[in-house]
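Weekend entry, working from home. Most of the wet-lab plans are on hold until the incubator is repaired, so I used the time to fold the two sequences that have been sitting in the queue since the last round of cloning. Logging both here for the record. First:
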Amino acid sequence: MRIWFNKTFSSISSIFSNLRQAQGVGSLTIIASHTNPYAPALVAAHEAYVEPSGLVGEAYLQWCLAFCQAKQINLFWVAKEARFLGKHQEKFAAIGTKLLIVAKPEVLALLNNKGEFYRSLPPEIALTMESRSARNKEEFDQAVAELAQRHASLCVKPAVSIYGLGFRILDTHQTSITHLLKGIEYQIPLDELRAGMETTPVFPELLIMENLTGHEWSVDCVGRQGQLLCAIQRRKLATGLGQLIDNDAEIQGMVLRLTQYFQLNGIFNIQFKLGAHGPRLLEINARPSGGIGMACLAGVNLPELVLKSLEFEVVELPTIHYGRRVSELNAPVVLEAASPALLSGS
């Protein structure tokens, strides 16, 4: 089987490593492409190619179709432009290529906007932290005043962002110079944030939320059109202590219901954090997490499981080693430029 991974995050190299170790899935050729010819993840692929920069929408669709034909791709593990490409699966099927996408286009759009996601999620599916949204200073002040009555600490984050970009805890006691001198991270003085809003009358949606202060879990999952096949919980410990393979029943229940509700597919990641009244859902990432390699150390090769789920109705799940402590090491590599993807007519 020839599997193509288009432009994505460098953490995809963990997927490549586990696919190379996969058993019972036949011969695999891992093809990777990126607009950066020196993208580190390309080193771990069998074949590496350069994508044209700047292609989106219809232009990118046509390039992907040509690439799949030229490189005889059997399975296209989609990252870049997943929402758009997902609307054209029949065009890929016509040339013998199957698309692997985490969810339908409308679900991917919802997962990308945390504000809409939180507002639309039924509480019987999963519980989130209490939150409000604001697009101007007046809405922000109202949200802070309301939430501060019930929660000792609040935080903010843009409704649309990746990783933890933009996340800050609201500090009502210290100034930014104190943060700078003491090396305090992920906090922002409330008064200074409000002052900044004076010169920005309207801004993109900002979420104001109760600040959860307990343990955080990263759950790496494999699904098949809404059926949860495996979920490995990694509970994050203090810096330097690694992560613990956990088995929290409340989290497992929410993961199962979320997978069914959103009809999730392939590999995805769900984040939770412990609050005063139990674990709360933070977000669903429609992609493999940066720590998926650690999850596989629990005893299940998740990428292998995905391939088996595409071929077999019933897949056997190996034993998950709960309580195992895991971590990861960075490895130095030599970077060589990937080959141009020379397609017919290009």
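Second, folded right after the first finished:
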Amino acid sequence: MYAKLIKRNLLIYTHDKMGIFFSFLGMFISLLIYIFFLRNNLIASLSRVEHVGKFVDTWMVAGLISIVALTTTLNAFGQEMEDRRNNKLDDFSVNSGLRLSAIKWIYTLTAIIEGLVSTIIFAVICFGYLSIRYSENAFNGHFWMSILFNSLLVVFSANFFTLISSCLSTMASFSALSAIVGTLAGFLSGTYIVYDALPKFMQTVLNYWPGYEIAAITRNEMMHGISSGVPNRVLDALGVSSNIGRAMAIVTIGTIICLVINYILSRTEKK
């Protein structure tokens, strides 16, 4: 029954052609805004860095991939809100014999699948951009490590939004959440504003936010070899981190906390 309901959610997602179009359009817009409006300013500010164009392109692309990994899982919970509004959750519970709390996890699994697919597709686009621009094959081991890191972020974000969506009751509130997440994700990954330009309080928050930590190690992975001559203080200011162990610990702990809270909340739900 789990598989059938997940398949049903995925079919609804894939049949919504316009929804998919605008979802990927948002990803493209982020990349195009960087290419046409932000790239030259960043290059000018880091003009002393060797191979500055490739350095800046790789830095930004890594951040954009992590933004997509964090935000695209939210789409599945829009379907949950729609089903809740149409009283379909009760129908699913009656027909399948599953608790409403168990059905909740179906949307979490759907979110993970949709998030992974979207992240991989966007990563292919971004690495393709780097390959074309610099006439080299960017699809190497760094590509797969970047996918691995951001897959963990997808799992965290799916569980995080499971928790957040459980507090929402209307499509209006969900739409507001989507707008907020879309706006904040770039800042909380240290992409739209570099880490060093943020207030100390925000830097402290980012140091314990999985989205930023994964973005930081993704940048380090993708920029391997490019950033070898760049001073560590510059890399730190740009949110580039080689501390994979710390990032893995933060995203794992964050996921476990969300899982535990979601489980506790699910025990209070009616059958």
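Plan for Monday: verify the second prediction. The chain has twelve helices and no strands.
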